[in-house]
Amino acid sequence: MTPQHPRTVTKAVIPAAGLGTRFLPATKATPKEMLPVVDKPAIQYVVEESVRAGLDDVLVITGRNKAALEDHFDHHWELEQALEAKGDQFRLARVRESADIKVHFVRQGQPLGLGHAVHVAKEHVGDHPFAVLLGDDLIDGRDHLLEEMVAVREERGGSVIALMEVPPESVGLYGCAAVDGREGDVVRVTGLVEKPDPAEAPSNLAVIGRYVLDPSVFEVLEQTPPGRGGEIQLTDALQTLAGSSEPGGGVHGVVFSGRRYDTGDRLDYLKAVVRLGLDHQELGKDFGQWLDEFVQERLAPEKAFQR
Ligand code: G1P
């Protein structure tokens, strides 16, 4: 008899080996995941989201040039001692926040695509369902997408992906899903295509960067040939799983309508900084006041000049 896969999801994989070309030259020597969103690097939000959802075994898949990521999730003894000596407990606590999370690292070796990056996690993950969080997709901390996806996996098995409605002309930037049987915000995924021509897209439901995957995805990835852009696509492996009635097969989608920021895109990055800056505990009030004045100035420059 085949053993049942353990059902509880405790592991998260964060692929962070990309070159960040959309954000050059800022990302020439700094990994895009380390770009600050207000006062924390983007990837710290993603790691914290994972821990909040109860997934505190985090594996980051890195590439060359990513040493800053490892340093960020480690203790910085000299800095901690200096802050301790000054009695700056507030900053000391903030510096320690990221070091207190247990983050593992493995290198992808060759940049062969998202599917390949996920496969690199096989040994660490073993025979357990696990989550994948893309390092440049930031989900607002007030929205509980990952928790809901884990609950859907626990209830229905198989794999679960996050979907979001996008304008039809933008669907070619994403993986796109064909779905049926909607119950609340949960759908059954019947097909997937990576970055389709918008005229041929099966829907306007885009795959966003959160997945809860059955471990059978590893075997499927091993059989998945390079797809769009010559890369091994996670979307293609999920397309196989969506049509599979084998144990571990089947894909559901959670249609998300909350706040998501693509911090790898310059315009979305600016929006994320403004939104999260406004919500920031220490800076939000002052920043909000300044922003109101700034907007008024933009709307009626002559009045602002008289002030
Ligand atoms: C990747 C996935 C794509 C997904 C997107 C979400 O694409 O391949 O299916 O829709 O992330 O951000 P990338 O943005 O890395 O090209």
Describe the protein.
The chain has one domain: Alpha-Beta Complex (Spore Coat Polysaccharide Biosynthesis Protein SpsA, Chain A). 36% of the residues lie in helices and 23% in strands. The strands form 3 sheets. Strands 5-4-1-6-11-8-12-10-9 form a 9-stranded mixed beta sheet. Strands 2-3 form a two-stranded antiparallel sheet. Strands 7-13 form a two-stranded antiparallel sheet. The chain is globular and about 60 Å long. The mean pLDDT is 92. It binds 1-O-phosphono-alpha-D-glucopyranose. The site of 1-O-phosphono-alpha-D-glucopyranose has 12 residues, from strand 11.
Number of helices: 12
Q: What share of residues is helical?
A: 25-40%
Order of helical and strand elements = EEEHEHHHEHHEEHEEEEHHEEHHH
What's the overall geometry? globular
**CATH topology term:** Spore Coat Polysaccharide Biosynthesis Protein SpsA, Chain A
Question: What is the rounded distance between the termini?
Answer: 80 Å
Using only CA atoms, what is the Rg? 21 Å
DSSP E strands, number: 13
Major sheet: 9 strands, mixed
Number of discrete domains: 1
Low-confidence stretches: none
Strand content: 15-25%
Hetero groups in this structure are:
1-O-phosphono-alpha-D-glucopyranose
Q: What structural category characterises the helix and strand content?
A: alpha/beta
Instruction: Please write the CATH class name.
Output: Alpha Beta
CATH architecture name: Alpha-Beta Complex
- What is the CATH superfamily? Spore Coat Polysaccharide Biosynthesis Protein SpsA, Chain A
